[in-house]
Specification:
- The protein is an alpha/beta fold and 172 residues long.
- It has 6 helices and 5 strands.
- Helix 2 packs across helix 3.
- The longest helix has 12 residues.
Length: 172
């Protein structure tokens, strides 16, 4: 049985609390909290600020991964660990992204002292591996961040079985 008390999963732009990843992860984390989040990164941050009032482990996919990183940058004391799945640290096609999102992606970094495991998709058609590696390099303790490169696409659909293990390592 897992000892972790509070775990949030932050879904991506096209995800939801009823999507495949949260449904799958609830088998391993039955008390998983999955808030419904809007597309706007600043609105997401405001919701998380109101919702996460005590320390909680964060797992996030795509835009949810970026949301987790930005929350951890603002409130590192509330994040004892993170697992990020194809986090939105950059885009292949930036032409459709709102300026606020581009700014958030360019400044994101994983705060020191927060154990973090990142799964990046080698065949990702949305988020370039170089952008994820750049986020890790910008972080104050990049050698303490575990990067797993999955032979998968942005959905990480073929890598679902790797997600709970990544979360367990990040959450201690």
């Amino acid at each position: 049985m897992r000892k972790i008390r509070r775990v949030y999963f932050l879904h991506g732009l096209e995800g939801s609390p009823q999507a495949n990843k949260p449904r799958f992860l609830r088998k391993y984390y039955p008390d998983l909290i999955v808030p419904s989040l809007p597309p706007d990164i600043e609105e997401r941050h405001a919701i998380l600020k109101e919702t996460i009032r005590e320390p909680a482990f964060l797992a996030g996919s795509s835009l949810g991964g970026l949301s987790a990183v930005l929350f951890a940058m603002s409130f590192p004391e509330k994040v004892p660990g993170m697992a990020l799945f194809a986090p939105a640290a950059g885009l292949f096609d930036e032409s459709q992204a709102p300026p606020g999102l581009l700014k958030a992606m360019s400044r994101c970094r994983i705060p020191s002292g927060i154990p973090t495991v990142v799964i990046a998709a080698l065949k990702d058609e949305v988020i370039p591996l170089a952008a994820i590696e750049g986020m890790i390099k910008r972080s104050p303790a990049p050698r303490r961040i575990e990067l797993i490169k999955a032979k998968d696409d942005h959905t990480l659909g073929r890598s679902l079985d790797a997600l709970p293990g990544a979360m367990d390592r990040a959450f201690g």
